[in-house]
Amino acid sequence: MLAWIIFAPLIGALINGLIFASGFWKKVLRGDEHTEKRIVSIVGCGVILISAIISSLMFFKLWPLDPPERQIIQELFIWIPSGEFRVSFAFLFDSLSCVMALVVTWVSFLIHIYSIGYMHEDHSYARYFTYLNLFVFFMLILVLGNSFPLMFVGWEGVGLASYLLIGFWYDDPEKAYAGRKAFIVNRIGDFGFILGIFLIFFVFGSASYGEVFKKALDPGFMSGIPTAAITVIALLLFVGAVGKSAQFPLYVWLPDAMAGPTPVSALIHAATMVTAGVYMVARCNVFYSASPTAQMVVVGIAAFTAFLAATIALTQNDIKKVLAYSTVSQLGYMFMGVGCGAYVAGMFHLVTHAFFKALLFLGSGSVIHALSGEQDISKMGGLRKFLPVTSLTFLFGTLAISGIPPLSGFFSKDEILGSLYERGFMIAWAVGLITAVLTAFYMMRLYLLTFEGEARAQREIRHHIHESPSSMTVPLIILAVLSVIGGYMGLPEFMGKVIGVHDSNMFEKFLASSVLVEEIKHLGDHAFGHWTLVVFSIIAAFLGIILAFYVYVINPSIPGSLVKSPAISFLYRGSYAKWFVDEIYHVLFVRTFVSLSTIAALFDVKVIDGAVNGIATGIREVAAILRNAQTGILRFYAALMAIGAMAILIYVVLSVK
Amino acid sequence: MIVAIEHYLVLSAILFIIGAYGVIIRKNLVIVLMSLELMLNSANLAFVAFSKALGDMTGQVFMIMTLTVAAAEVAVGLALVVMIYTHRGTLDIDVLKMLKG
Fold first, then answer.
1. Model-level pTM?
2. Structural domains in chain B, sorted by start
3. Model pLDDT for residues A362-374, shown as the tens digit of each residue
């Protein structure tokens, strides 16, 4: 049954791809487009619903099991039988992959439903659903695979699907370029990831999770292995995560990935695929817990990324770009969580983020849809009365991501910040708090500029503004509800006690069967307690919201005057230009690479081709001389043979004497 | 007069040289083939002569073998000659030089 979670989307992709996207339906069966779209929608969404329902059934099967036995493994066949290196094509359903599978399938399902409305007028409707189903298939392989090679298959597969979907409107060169950029930047990360897998096999002699982690937890086995080896493994795997999950310095592809259709941005580049790195680190928690160096690196990069992306998001005017940088920043939070050893907190934020970021992206899609493709928030404003459902759900998403209690984002973000503090990552904690202020500020700014204030849209666009169809608003509402209540599954125990809930933090208890949950050492009497930390988080969130409100509603002249003052304008322009990271990369890597390639091309043409052509010419010229010997006259050959035979004879006779 | 092995060998050598001379000098393909036969038979003669002189039958066996092969070769060779003539209309080997490089 487990395998059907994975293969249902593949079947959907095959049906939609081979029958509809290929043109078989239209050209051979002469079917009409209306029926085609209907069947494609039913197949595309149906298979995901099947996956989602099976995942849920499996979850209920998993839940009552005792924590040590809380896993279901299904082995299909031996995939790579090669001497000592045996990899079986097996799937693992433990609490960690269960959480991921549930999030992936259900959020995918909502986004598939949303896509029916959003992509309705697109000509490549079937192709879109084919790719989307293919993505879910690979994502589920990534999440449910029971070995590193299988995870790598999914890892590469989602990269492929992401490339196909970013460049979905490939007749626009800029969008096709964005697809290629995502693919190539991800290659850099994958390079590290696969090296990490090789090293794991080299050290542990196996590549399946069960064997590797059992050995990694065995003190007898680990005493023979230098800590440096584990650190290197952890860091190489993290290189892969940096690429896929858009962390500094490889985050540059994600903002450009917004070139794809908005539901794709919501599904792949916000809710699921980009969190694969977080899942991977949580899966390999044994390695990270064993290596403080790796933890420091992960937390450092994550904190820097979170802060950097938040500063860029402050000034962007493209609604999807703001959300993209916000995603990068939130991914930074997740990595701070899993990096400091609070794997549950990181996974918790992954889940809540999937809810509210999918909601925000779908909301922005609804806005773009209503405004006939306009993405610039400086041309929006006042949309609340035109788009009541979208604006209300968007507001919930904004408050959730800002960390306003008691919405879901508050619990997960607070848990990460608290964990950072309790584990002694003080700088990261401070950076996280500042980033939380920035997050609340830029998200509120986005909301206010889009939905409140005066309408700045052009008149003819304003006439066409309409609330989206129900296939788009219903997923928004469901996601909004999840964003609001999703946090209660991870209600911390110290809060649960106050409210009087007995089984608080079910999320942690469930995940504890597959991830390490470390006991926190007491920090000493002068350290902040739980509640003080919570107060800090709440203050940060409200500070950002209030600042945004003050700047954009109460005193709207502030942004203009701030930009004019020299010190601020310097920062403003830097942030608006994304700190010139793309330009720096262009000079450092792209241009260096191009000039190196030019030299290499010259070497290829002159030296290598020259040598090959020179040999050929030489042989041809020698042959032209030798060819004269082949006269074609039979008597000449006969005479030569006779002379030759005679010469041999004379030689033999003379040498005998 | 006793016919000694030297006589046979001299005769064989003369026949061989006549054959080789014919192969090199003549232009008609049929004559060339005939000269080739002459060379083969001179070798056969030498085989038999040695066989008799040394009292070893191996030489005669070899002669029979060569004779058979020569017969087969003539059959194939003459068939080729006929085909060449019907296709090219000539048997002058100075004209038939398609193998020229």
1. 0.80
2. 5-88 (1.10.287.3510)
3. 999 988 888 877 8
